[in-house]
UniProtKB/TrEMBL annotation:
One MF annotation (Gene Ontology) recorded for this entry: DNA binding
Protein name from the UniProt record: DDE-1 domain-containing protein
Signal peptide extent: none
Limits of the DDE-1 domain: 221-349
Species, as recorded: Mytilus galloprovincialis (Mediterranean mussel)
């Protein structure tokens, strides 16, 4: 067994100040032990950092640094070549996301968990897969596996602890009441901080409704409106290309999308970047508030930078609460289907052709009228009756 170099050993004018707290002595067996008998990770992470900066700052050869600090040569070369981050402590293959990217994902999952949304294994892997596709790290058919899911939670013990303490079934109602109180407290703080109290046109609610056609087809509609009663035009989601082509033949400038999987994060990103942003009121560095539920498609890390750059604040409705906190879901969604059925019946009696987008847009304008939207916000407790301002 070779002796460890003494502390402060000089090599070519460079003084290696070695950390006496790191047990380098045991690392020198690594080069003299047969490969079949070696154990993984026979070095301390601090030794790797010291070797890295000894090469970068001190200019000593890689081979010498590996010998002095007891680091495998390929391990150090991967850090020097940029293949692996020097902060990465995992052995084996590198992680799919960088530490910063995965930190954003963990923060969003943690934020939703505090609102009562504890996503399943499949839902989290779906969210992460969509994140990969949006960042062009993978294609949509390369779905993340259970192995990635377990590694993700192992790398973020605080998130794992949060999921471990999730409320049991018998405590769900109590947790929902607590989350509801937290929601109104956060809502009140946002009103005071950004002066939304007398700016009801800056407070929006978003909800995805479904219209069932006479052919028993379900077509999604993203509806959004402000507390002042101003509705953003509808955005239609079709699951079949043929249905989409038949529906929009006679329409111009109607925002639509075809998605085989229905309402996904890709649809939500397209809606926010190409539709929602167009209809926001004129602002001078002022923020708008968007209230929405915790559906997994709304957890999109890709939109964090977009919402920050455009001063869009998001507030999620707590899980397991009634529909009273979502004005559109409470009042507008049911009326949308009723208005659509009524208009279709009229056209049938008058022997007129039914074009889906024509009828759906007319039904949307009725269900999302200023009077109905204003009343919906008042019923939800998010808007006062006296001056139609946010509470």
């Amino acid at each position: 067994m070779k002796r460890a170099p003494s502390i402060g050993r000089h090599l070519d004018g460079f003084c290696l100040q070695m950390n006496t707290d790191v047990p380098y002595q045991d690392n020198y067996d690594l080069f003299d032990t047969p490969k079949s008998k070696r154990k993984n990770r026979q070095y301390h992470h601090q030794a790797l950092i010291d070797a890295y900066y000894a090469v970068i700052d001190g200019g000593i050869p890689v081979r010498t640094a590996c010998r002095l600090y007891g680091i495998p040569r390929e391990t150090l070369r991967d850090r020097l070549d940029g293949k692996r981050s020097i902060d990465c402590e995992n052995i084996g293959r590198g992680t799919l996301f960088t530490k910063e990217e995965e930190n954003k994902l963990a923060d969003e999952v943690s934020r939703m968990a505090k609102c009562g949304y504890f996503y399943s294994c499949k839902e989290i892997t779906d969210i992460a897969t969509d994140y990969c596709v949006l960042m062009e790290k993978r294609t949509s058919d390369q779905h993340l596996t259970l192995k990635w899911y377990r590694g993700f939670f192992n790398r973020w013990p605080e998130l794992q602890m949060l999921y471990t303490k999730r409320p049991r079934k018998r405590n769900i109602l109590a947790a929902a009441a607590e989350n509801k109180d937290r929601f109104f407290k956060e809502f009140g703080d946002l009103l005071d901080r950004h002066d939304f109290t007398f700016k009801p046109n800056f407070v929006f609610n978003l909800h995805v409704s479904v219209i069932k056609t006479k052919e028993s087809q379900s077509i999604g509609v993203i509806g959004c409106g402000s507390a002042s009663g101003i509705a953003i035009p509808p955005y239609f989601i079709f699951q079949e290309q043929e249905t989409h082509d038949n529906a929009v033949n006679s329409m111009n400038n109607i925002p639509t999308v075809v998605s085989e999987n229905g309402y996904t994060s890709f649809v939500f990103v397209d809606y926010m970047k190409n539709h929602f942003i167009k209809f926001l009121p004129e602002r001078k560095n002022e923020s708008v508030l968007l209230i929405l539920d915790g559906f997994k498609s709304h957890l999109c890390v890709e939109l964090i930078g977009f919402t920050k750059d455009n001063n869009i604040l998001t507030l999620f409705i707590p899980a397991n609460c009634d529909t009273s906190l979502s004005p559109i879901e409470q009042c507008c969604s049911a009326q949308l289907q009723e208005c659509y059925d009524e208009l279709c019946l009229r056209k049938i009696h008058s022997n007129e052709q039914i074009c889906f987008c024509d009828v759906a847009c007319e039904a949307y304008n009725k269900a999302f009228s200023q009077e109905i939207l204003g009343e919906a916000f008042v019923k939800s407790g998010l808007c006062s009756i006296e001056n139609n301002s946010a509470v």
